[in-house]
């Protein structure tokens, strides 16, 4: 009975969000439907980050300081331009994978294997800008909302088959659990990737990094993926057109950079 009421409640909120236009992504102005409370979203992100920290060594020293400084500049740009008010925290973790991620709520992790591929501050800023963009565009919450909508169908089956044995029924309804679906390694969609690339580029430029380095970084990333497991690409699938799109957005980013009062580039 509770499940039916929950499903009906969710369907009504979805219909309401749909009719009223839902939320809007910063910069791209794409409308999105998010039915996850931002407090719940942040709590899930914080829990997942604690789990990550229990399995990785957080590094200290010059490398970690540099990563934190870059992240702080990008976060400041996100707060000033888009009012992104989160509890930000950045860690450099010992891990050979060339990857980085940011969890909903503002926890950012850069894996040490990314440093040789990033090569310089502008390259690192490209990746961190991309990750911060996923957070402020609330991509995880949007994905979770879509997952819950998909689960409504499954739930209807479970309720209709009310005479199913309790174990099986429990397994079907267990699909509503959000723990595994909120796994940090679940890949983003191409729409989300493209959006994170564009917003991230503007953010790193507003933080006075050089957006012209972004296509170079993604070229290095693609080459690194050829040598071993494509770590970043496995969680951030991108269209072949990523480098082309980024090149097309450089003017927008350079204008944002100038408007932010950054010193001219050489
Ligand atoms: Zn991404």
UniProtKB/TrEMBL annotation:
Record carries keyword Disulfide bond: no
InterPro entries noted in UniProt: Mito/Outer_Membr_Metalloprot (IPR051156), Peptidase_M48 (IPR001915)
GO biological process, one term: protein quality control for misfolded or incompletely synthesized proteins
Keyword terms of this UniProt record: Hydrolase, Metal-binding, Metalloprotease, Protease, Zinc
One protein family per Pfam: Peptidase_M48
Coiled coil ranges: none
Domain Peptidase M48: 69-249
Keyword Protease in annotation: yes
CC per GO annotation: membrane
GO MF term set: metal ion binding; metalloendopeptidase activity
Transmembrane spans: none
Cofactor mode of binding and number, as noted: Binds 1 zinc ion per subunit.
Cofactor requirements of the protein: Zn(2+)
Membership in a protein family: Belongs to the peptidase M48 family.
Protein name (database record): Zn-dependent protease with chaperone function
Taxonomic classification: Bacteria, Pseudomonadati, Pseudomonadota, Alphaproteobacteria, Hyphomicrobiales
């Amino acid at each position: 009975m509770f499940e039916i009421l929950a499903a009906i409640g969710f369907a009504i909120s979805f219909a309401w969000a749909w009719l009223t236009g839902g939320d809007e992504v910063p910069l791209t102005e794409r409308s999105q439907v998010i039915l996850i409370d931002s407090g719940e979203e942040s709590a899930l992100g914080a829990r997942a980050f604690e789990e990550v920290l229990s399995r990785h060594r957080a590094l200290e020293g010059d490398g970690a300081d540099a990563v934190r400084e870059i992240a702080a500049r990008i976060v400041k740009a996100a707060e000033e331009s888009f009012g992104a008010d989160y509890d930000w925290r950045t860690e450099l973790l010992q891990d050979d994978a060339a990857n980085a991620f940011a969890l909903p709520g503002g926890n950012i992790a850069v894996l040490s294997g990314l440093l040789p591929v990033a090569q310089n501050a502008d390259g690192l800023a490209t990746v961190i800008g991309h990750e911060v963009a996923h957070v402020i565009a609330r991509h995880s919450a949007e994905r979770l909302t879509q997952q819950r909508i998909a689960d409504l169908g499954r739930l209807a089956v479970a309720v209709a088959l009310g005479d199913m044995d309790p174990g099986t029924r429990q397994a079907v309804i267990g699909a509503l659990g959000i723990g595994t679906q909120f796994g940090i390694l679940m890949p983003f969609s191409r729409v989300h990737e493209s959006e994170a690339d564009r917003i991230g580029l503007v953010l790193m430029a507003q933080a006075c990094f050089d957006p012209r380095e972004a296509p170079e970084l993604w070229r290095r990333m693609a080459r690194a993926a050829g040598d071993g497991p494509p770590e970043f690409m496995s969680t951030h699938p991108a269209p072949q057109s990523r480098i082309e799109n980024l090149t097309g957005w450089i003017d927008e980013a350079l204008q944002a950079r100038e408007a932010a009062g950054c010193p001219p580039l050489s």
